[in-house]
Amino acid sequence: MSLLLWIGMFFGFQPQSQDTVLLTPVEVYAPTLDRFTQGQKIKSYSKAELNTYQGRSLGDLLQETSPVFIRQYGAGMLASPSFRGTSAGHTSVFWNGIPVNSPSLGQSDLSILPVAAVDQVAIHFGNGGALFGNEAIGGSIHLGTKLSFSEGFQGSFSQQFGSFGQTNSYLKSSFSSEKLSSETRFYRESATNDFHFKDLGQAETPIVRAQNSAVKQMGIVQDLAWNLSKTTQLKASFWYNQADREIQPVMGSNTNDIQSDQSFRMAVDYFHFGKKSILNLKSGLVQDNQLFNQSENNTVQYFLSGDWDSAFTPKWNLKTGLRLNFIQGELSTYQATDQRVESYQSLRFQPDENLKISLNLRQLAYLDQFEPFIPSLGADWDFWKNSNNQLSLKASIAKGIKVPTLNDRFWEPGGNPDLIPEKSQSGEIGLIWQKTGGISWENSLTYYRMTVDNWIIWIPKGNFWTPENIREVQNQGIEYQGQASTELGNWNITANWAYTWSRAISTKGIGETDPAIGKQLPYTPEHQANGRINAGYNGFSTFIGTYFIGERRVTSDGQRTMPSYQFFNLGVSYGNLSLGKIKIPLRFQVNNLFNKDYQVLYLRPMPGRSYQFTLSIQL
Among 167, 235, 344, 581, which has the minimal tally of Cβ within 10 Å of its Cβ? Predict the structure, then answer.
């Protein structure tokens, strides 16, 4: 299919955009996302959407269903996000409200964040520095677990089998009374990834089988919550994850690298509910231990925060808080510590039911120095309504910041302790059309523009590489999203799709003759699109989904490019099979339906057609 298909869909099947859909209510656990993000774009995922991606990673979910480009190094290998042409280090990832990016690497590997480990996924587009702090320049990813009360015992087990040696097991059990709620989930995933591919690194490009590409992962997530009284609640979440991987070599190579990742994350929340306010005290711990061959990368982050959220009048909401972060890094090449203090304030004003305005401010201090205030200002305006139509306008301006990573400052040899933070300025404006009726839809169109100054890049200097604040980048683009739903006889039909045009060019580089100036950033597609149609009837459902990635430059000077690609996924499921009170849902899925031969990154092979079968037992 050509790209014209995606543009034409705007005028054909009327869809429903997800960039302004309010997040599913999460009680009191993450109110910032939907209460103080006026003028900004958010996409959240339903429980049904997440169930479809059980057995797959967060990287797979975002690549196939959002405008986020995922740079994949192979099946089960490193997967890093790119929001609006920015780098993986410009994306902040949160779990139950605490940031989990590696302080040494400055990013998260989405391939070892399984969808099965969380209940909630939401993505925030654009500058979120004022709301979420460091690194949220291009966007942020928010993961969470949610507990319920007074539902007694519930349990489920799922076994999944798939191509290339895939074997996944999932166990989930929960118990809740009026005052106590507990949920435990365990997962184990493994695959040999011994798929065939055309080896472009060898003469005559023979068909070979992937070697040294097996992955194993297991983890356990424990959530607890206590209603201590009618006005107080305590919640604790723990997540241990271990991933062991053989690192798939590039085409033409036969390396045998191995990597082990162990992570332990903990978040403890205390809530006090007043008549018009909520007090939240939070503590957190994130410990990451990585071993690549014989090279160690061990970091620990400690968090302590508190905020007060008050609706002191029907028109005004205020949130103010403080977050402390202490970091320790012990790597094979250096040892270092870091301390950061952040104060933040958010204000929302709603003069009438059709207009909401928010102002967010954040002050960051690190290395005994204060950075300038990071502000954002946004508004939502429903400027026209009738019985079944609504037109809305969203607009925002913001600044963001990214502090140099531990590796940037302390790596031996080459670390540069004199680096300054990367800083960004951005603005966006969007138009949303909503319609209800026989066919309900939303259409949204967003234009954004951003500049990132003091972009850190590593350059050769003598016998080693060192980072410098050299590059300046200008990003702009258009994001169109849509979703529609209707009934056709006894069938429920839903469809959603998106198209993104992204232009990210260097305006300053290494000297005036740098060939990268004026060129699209490497591995940043200008065109990207995805779509999905679901149909359900009496417990039976089916879907077909597709996504398209445009041409990407491999090098900064644009001399080498990667071709575009598009492939399709198809799935069917049946949920009404039961044995007494025991439900036994079944699901079968085909990924890369037409066996497309493609690479996301140069000489990094990706698998062809694969199959996945899931049998579940729910009590």
Answer: 581
